[in-house]
Amino acid sequence: IHFRLLREDFVGPLRDGIQQYLSKVPGKNSNIRIYENVYLLGSRLIPQSGLVYDLLLDSRIASKIYWANSRRLLYGNLLVLTFNNFQSCAFCTIEDRSQVEKKFIISVKTLKELKNFEQTQMNLDVVDRSCSLTMIETMVYFEAYHPVLNALQIIPSNHRFPLGSFLLKLTNEMTTPDYIKPTTTYDFTPLLVDLNSDVNASLIIHQTFCSIKRICI
Known about the structure:
By secondary structure, the protein is α+β, with helices and mostly antiparallel strands. It has 2 domains: 2-153, Efflux pump adaptor protein, beta barrel domain (Elongation Factor Tu (Ef-tu), domain 3, Beta Barrel); 175-217, no CATH class. The protein has 5 helices and 8 strands. A 6-stranded antiparallel barrel has the order 1-2-5-4-3-6. A two-stranded antiparallel sheet has the order 7-8. β3 and β4 (90-96) form a beta hairpin. α1 packs across α3. The radius of gyration is 28 Å and the shape is elongated.
């Protein structure tokens, strides 16, 4: 359930932003950034990331952005590319934007095939270079969600999740930790009493985790 909640927290604004864009509702779209007249320059191999695709932004728009201090097109953020109003699209992450300020070029890497999107996924290798693309950037930073979502996906369903009763089942019942036994005792004297004083005191835990008895001598 936490995976679905976290995924919706990220995907929800993206979905709402695309719906607003397609419906032509007037007003600012606060969920996504829209880049039109984007062109695919081709693909190349780089040592760190493998196969990437270079995209050329519209110079009339890109030249007005102060990229040095801009939070647009940050490394790892999610992009959606389409040429047919999202009847098909490609999901990419930004790999390099070092050329965006001077040449208005960014390099992206496509995500692996996504479940439930096989029929609508667009293959960038077959896109004509003369084709004008619409590019959508999420306002929510994808890289902050990506590793957590991946980690939640690889946890086996029969795995005992650490603190699962509190994090997953949201229980507020206090239970005794496994390391607390009926005979367990703790001496807190060094924390409560000056070792140089004549007073001796101790705190002893009896039987239950929440039952604490103080004995002073």
